[in-house]
Design goal:
Strand content: 35-45%
Distance between the termini: 99 Å
Keywords: Signal
Protein name: Surface cell wall-binding protein
Shape: rod-shaped
Number of helices: 1
Organism: Kitasatospora nipponensis
Radius of gyration: 38 Å
Oligomer: single chain
């Protein structure tokens, strides 16, 4: 049979052990509760949709009844709008080609994009067109995400009519993006 003093000592050791364990846990709980946190923010900037085109181009020369063609120089769409779902369309329109009183209709010219190189995420669709005074879609960008670019060096070809008068002809190719 146990003596009453032994039981009291066991209880006092158990209470003392529990108090010691609690003393060890309390500082840990205090540190965890006081763990500092920092809210971090930043801003992704957005810009504009723009198009750069060559200032001028010379297709060369050729006789009546032939086609005169050449690449006109790089055309670049820059989409800095940082959109989740970006799309844009480049159109081209041509004035009639004039040499004094003589003209060659814009519809005698064609526009072909050739190879398009891109950066970022954008899906490109090209359309070769017979030019006219009315704007027509030549390159379409779709399914764009964030910033993107597309560049190409289009070829313009003019089918010179058999009855064309000799001389230098000038027309204005207007390309725009929206």
């Amino acid at each position: 049979m146990a003596t009453p003093g032994v039981v009291v000592r066991t209880r006092s050791l158990t209470v003392a052990a529990a108090a010691a364990a609690l003393a060890l846990v309390q500082p840990c709980l205090a540190v965890a509760a006081a763990d500092p946190s920092t809210t971090v923010t930043f801003t992704v900037t957005s810009g504009a949709l723009s198009l750069s085109v060559p200032a001028s181009a010379n297709l060369g020369s050729g006789a009546p009844g032939t086609a005169i063609s050449a690449p006109i120089g790089p055309v670049t769409v820059t989409d800095d709008r940082a959109l989740l779902s970006a799309s844009w369309t480049v159109t081209a329109a041509e004035t009639d080609f004039a040499n004094g009183a003589s003209t060659i209709p814009a519809t005698k010219a064609t526009y072909s994009t050739g190879t398009v190189t891109t950066t970022g995420t954008i899906t490109i669709t090209t359309t070769a067109v017979t030019l006219s005074n009315a704007a027509q879609a030549v390159v379409t960008g779709s399914a764009g995400v964030g910033d993107n670019t597309a560049s190409w060096d289009p070829t313009v070809a003019v089918n010179v009519p058999v009855g064309a008068i000799g001389g230098t002809y000038t027309g204005t190719l207007t390309q725009s993006v929206a």
